[in-house]
Specification:
The chain has helices at about 10-25, 35-50, and strands at about 1-5, 50-55, 60-65. By secondary structure, it is α+β, with helices and mostly antiparallel strands. The chain has a single domain, classed as YehU-like (Arc Repressor Mutant, subunit A, Orthogonal Bundle), CATH 1.10.10. The protein has a 3-stranded antiparallel β-sheet. A hairpin with a 4-residue loop joins strand 2 (about 50-55) and strand 3.
């Protein structure tokens, strides 16, 4: 089930973004980015429709997933 970011409290959304950044270990290329910068990038993706929050009721897992450009 998709969850709109505005349905979460600011604290819950920030915690979800931080957990996503820590879990993903995303490679940003040759340039290093701070944890705060990575979190801001995920937040921007959510705000601009480049990513969505999904909840799987069966596993009770929450994920932030990118949306391929062809699906936007």
């Amino acid at each position: 089930m998709r969850i709109a970011p505005d349905k979460l409290s600011a604290e819950a959304l920030q915690g979800l973004i931080e957990a996503h950044v820590l879990r993903e270990g995303t490679d940003y290329g040759h340039q290093e980015f701070s944890f705060a910068d990575k979190c801001a990038e995920v937040r921007l993706a959510l705000d601009r429709g480049g990513a969505e929050i999904w909840f799987d009721a069966e596993s009770e897992a929450v994920m932030i997933l990118p949306i391929p450009r062809t699906n936007r």
